[in-house]
Structure formats: C-alpha cells, structure tokens
Amino acid sequence: MENCIFCKIVKGDIPSYKVYEDEAVYAFLDITQVTEGHTLVIPKKHVKDIFEYDEDLASNLFARVPKIARALEKTFPEMAGLNLVNNNKELAYQSVFHSHLHLIPRYSKQDQFSLTFGETTKKYTTEEMAEMAQAINEQVMAND
C-alpha cells in the first residue's frame, strides 16, 4: 500500500529498529516504547486488520510470535510477563491500519502499561450464552 507507514518500513523507505525478519514477517521496536522492548510484529503483506488474514498469513505471523517473545525474555531477564495486544478497527484503538501485534514486556504493576477489563453491566443467562456460542460456531463452520 502506497501511503502505509508499515509498508514503507518493510521496504526500507523509513528506518526502523528491526529485531526480526523473514520472507513473511517483520518485527521492530515500537517508536513509542510503552515499556522497554515493546515490539511490533507485522505481516510483510499489507492487510488492514485480522479480518483480512487468510490461514497461511495467520500461520506465518503467529508462528513467529513465541520465538520473538522468548528473545525478549532472554534480552530482558527482569521481565516478569508479556502482553500480546492486537487492536482491530478504530473503535478497538487501531491507529495504524496495517495489521500488527504489540509484544509489550511487563516488569512490574507500576510500569507504564495497563490493560484492565471492567465488569460487564449485562449478565448473560446460560441459555443466552449457549445461543451466542452456537451462532458464532455456525459462522466459523460456514467459513471453512
């Protein structure tokens, strides 16, 4: 994509702090380090979000994540955890519309990152949960 900042990074038109690259995946330090070692993992192929992945692209990208995560853990032995974050579409806080995964090392509860889930205001019945699961399952099976 012509005006995509991540496509420009992959092509080498914009510099980056590369931590990993192969034929399908490029990983580099996020320019705004939420915590030390905050890394982005992107497919080299331009896809806007997770909804545009095919099985091969997903397999290629997600297969590399553990390798990069282990490299972060070895590089930063004081790391006590890791958040894997993927935002899809603007409402879900996606700001660069080339799909990417954030690997965010965690060092303590006082580091500069917080991810919390509020209590839902709606409580679902067992029947509603079963109906929801069935409807999603039907869509998963229809896409095979």
Automatic annotation (TrEMBL):
Gene Ontology terms: biological process: nucleotide metabolic process
Residue numbers covered by motif Histidine triad motif: 98-102
Pfam families (UniProt xref): HIT
GO molecular function: catalytic activity
InterPro entries the UniProt entry points to: HINT, Histidine_triad_CS, Histidine_triad_HIT, HIT-like, HIT-like_sf
Coiled-coil intervals, chain numbering: none
Protein name: HIT family protein
Gene source species: Vagococcus intermedius
